Amino acid sequence: LLDGYDGQYDWITHTFRYGGAWLTMKTVEDCFNVQVDHYVRVNFNSFVEIVDSVGGVDLNLTDQEAKALNWEVPSNSMLIVNKVHPGWNHFDGYTALQYARLRAIDSDWKRIERQRTVIQAVMDQLKTANPAQINTLLDKALPLVQTNFTKNEIAALLTQLPGFIGVKADQMSLPAEGTYGVRVGMDDREMFDPDWTENIRILHDFLYGENSDSDAYPNGDPTLSAATSESATPENAKATASPRPSASASPRPSASASPAPTASVIEEP
Q1: β-strands 87-91, 10-11: how paired?
Q2: Cα separations (Å) of 41 from 20, 44, 147, 194, 202?
Q3: What is the DSSP track for 137-187?
Q4: Contacts of 172 (CB under 8 A, 6+ apart)
């Protein structure tokens, strides 16, 4: 869909640079064979303000995470205002952002886990919120994000919000361990080269449950496609584990247009 990028590979997160939220959604659809209708876009500034709007979050730090935030070991976070300690800490939005950015002490995998931990911690802060407090929070938070949800769709979701308060979200990372190799993409960047058929199956099982008939494959059943392709036989498609956890690879910066769950983007400033 983008001229000049045929046959080229880049990180899936870079699709936002090429074509905004629309291309990111289309790429997720194309790679993982799921239907994506909506997105919510959050940048660093709005991340901080949203965490502050719920009164901060409680996070349980490892010894290495505490040292990294305090700059006692090399860290890619910014300097924080108040020192932290191993164990439970109450973070404001700025410090929670630095926690969510940590990866120099371990890997991208762990950074992704930290980002999801902060999202769950925000949800945990709402456990005791009453309807008036939730309404005030939404008045603060909604102007801080960009989304393609319409006002009517948001209103319909708000009626369901009480059922989500205090809920623990199921989480996972893709590609799954042992289902990817490595390839070199644009600008000589290393990236995962996943067994797409296997990871599509894993994602659909996660979203809909094993043997569920409630899910759909907008691009056709990948298992059936793989069965007819020599290049997708188990001995060829099953890749070895990557030594470097970079972001997953998109087939190319231009995803195919499938029919359009919800994708979120936390973007660098």
Answers
A1: unpaired
A2: 10, 10, 6, 26, 26
A3: HHHHHGGG-EE---HHHHHHHHTTGGGGTTPPPP---SSPTTSEEEEE-GG
A4: 202, 203, 206
Residue 27 φ/ψ region, left for φ over 0, alpha for ψ in the -120 to 50 degree band, beta for the rest: alpha
The structure tokens listed for 18 are 């090429």
**Cross-sheet strand order for the sheet of 146-147:** 146-147, 39-43, 263-267
**Which one-letter DSSP state was computed for residue 60?**
E
Summarised one tens digit per residue, pLDDT across range 26-78 is: 999 999 999 999 999 999 999 999 999 999 999 999 999 999 999 999 998 99
DSSP bridge partners of 193? 181
- CB neighbours (10 Å) of residue 227? 11
How sure is the predictor about 267, in pLDDT bands with cuts at 50, 70 and 90? Answer: very low
Q: CB of 84 within 8 A of CB of 66?
A: yes
Q: Tell me the pLDDT tens digit for each residue of 222-242.
A: 776 655 444 443 343 333 333
Spatial contact of 263 and 36, defined as CB atoms under 8 Å apart: yes
Higher pLDDT pick, 134 / 1: 134
SS (H, E, C) 94-148: HHHHHHHHCCCCCCHHHHHHHHHHHHHHHHHHCCCCCHHHHHHHHHHHHHHCEEC
- Angle, alpha carbons 255-246-241 (nearest 5°): 100
Written as six digits, the tokens of 251 are 């087939």
Q: What single letter denotes the amino acid at residue 152?
A: N
The answer to whether 65 touches 117, Cβ cutoff 8 Å, is: no
The C-alpha atoms of residue 55 and residue 122 are separated, in whole angstroms, by 9
